[in-house]
Amino acid sequence: MKALVWHGEGDIRLDNVADPSIQDANDAIVRITRSAICGTDLHFIRGTMAGMHEGTILGHEAVGVVEEVGASVRGLSPGDRVIVCSTMSCGVCRYCRMGQTAQCDVANPNGPAAGTCFFGGPAPTGPVDGLQAEYARIPWASNTLIPIPDNVSDDDAILLSDIFPTAWFGAQLAGIRRGDTVAVYGAGIVGQLAIAAAYRQGAGRVWAVDGVQTRLVKALEQNAEVIDFNAEDPVEAIMDATMGVGVDAVIEAVGVDAQRPTSGPAAEKYAARTEQFDAEVAQTAPKTNVQGENWVPGNAPSLSAQWAVESVAKYGRIGMIGVFSPDLTSFPIGAATNKNLTLRAGNCDHRSVTPPLLDLVAAGLFDPAPFVTQREPLDDVVDAYLSFDRRDEGWLKTVLSTQ
């Protein structure tokens, strides 16, 4: 079969590889009909998340059709259309029973202390081959797969594999309450859906912070108030807009690949911290393979987290869903403590978060389609990665088709 394979930092290839097979009684084989490219995938290619094994198939978002099930798989049969949750979970350990499926004690073959097990990631997450392929093996299939209702298309279901649940989870981490003022750092696809989630969870006003114009335009279409960090200092802008108080809650959707402002007052302000940011880059991305404008790690790994702390009100709440390397040790803990902040962070509990969102889509109460900006065949996946990695204008979310 065809699959996108990681061969090293800056080296991904569409290869012909062996078809997957049942390896455990809890496995299923799914024929992938739609997959997608996520910013998390870029971390492995840029070098900002270590521990990848050469030969690992990338991708952690997919929908498809069940082809085969192991002897212990219940509730699923060949021919069923399914969403593949990005994170695997057994469904019966104590964390799964509490709905905290991202920290399943069983799914990660490295043991309970290893944490989240997800598709297409580095050694500490499994590793388990990913979903940017024609077929995939799904461990713990009974809990990792979610049947798709007949009235929900594959194109609508794909954003429920990871992105929409992650954004919703971020708003929950931030504890959004009715009437809250909210800042969303990062207006990529996760940030866009975090805006939607914040409003649906009760936010009164939402500010979106980014440096890419087409992303800000998309946020504006959702009635967010936009801040271009290359034109104004985002912290000062938010403090001015809130009469010096700060927002009630922040959703941080950038992570370790944050970029320094290239112009405007914020660029001048952070020029003096170049040495600090360079040290953080060396810490989080010790091995890179930059090729022109591609595969360039973010040059200010802690900046979005710093902005989050600075722009939230005293006793405010921060929900962090941006991906941060475990090697990054910089965080403004003193400022956060001094403001009595509540910080919650982590990977989405997909299996417990997704079903209610699938109901919203099935009922016609949320339309995922406008958030998909590119649809490409799997054969063109490498070129699609290159455009997405460069943050080309208009490249927000790419869905891959294998049909």
Describe the structure.
It is a single chain. This protein has 403 residues and is an alpha/beta fold. The protein contains 14 helices and 16 strands. The chain has helices at 39-46, 94-97, 141-144, 154-157, 163-173, 189-200, 213-221, 234-241, 264-270, 274-284, 303-311, 333-338, 350-362, 381-389, and strands at 2-8, 11-16, 28-37, 56-57, 62-69, 81-84, 135-138, 145-147, 181-185, 205-210, 225-228, 247-252, 312-320, 342-345, 374-377, 398-401. The strands form 3 sheets. Strands 3, 5, 6, 7, 8, 15 and 16 form a 7-stranded mixed beta sheet that branches. Strands 11-10-9-12-13-14 form a 6-stranded parallel beta sheet, sandwiched between helices. Helix 5 (163-173) crosses helix 6 (189-200), helix 5 (163-173) crosses helix 13 (350-362) and helix 8 runs parallel beside helix 11 (303-311). The mean pLDDT is 97.
Strand percent estimate: 15-25%
Q: How many strand elements? A: 16
Query: Treating each run of at least 4 consecutive H or I residues as one helix, how many helices?
Result: 14
The percent range for helix content is: 25-40%
Poorly predicted regions: none
Order of helices and strands: EEEHEEEHEHEHHEHEHEHEHHHEHEHEHE
Q: How many whole angstroms does the radius of gyration measure?
A: 20 Å
Overall pLDDT metric: 97
Looking at the structure, what is the overall shape?
globular
Main sheet properties: 7 strands, mixed
Q: Based on helices, strands and strand pairing, what is the structural class?
A: alpha/beta
Distance between the termini: 13 Å
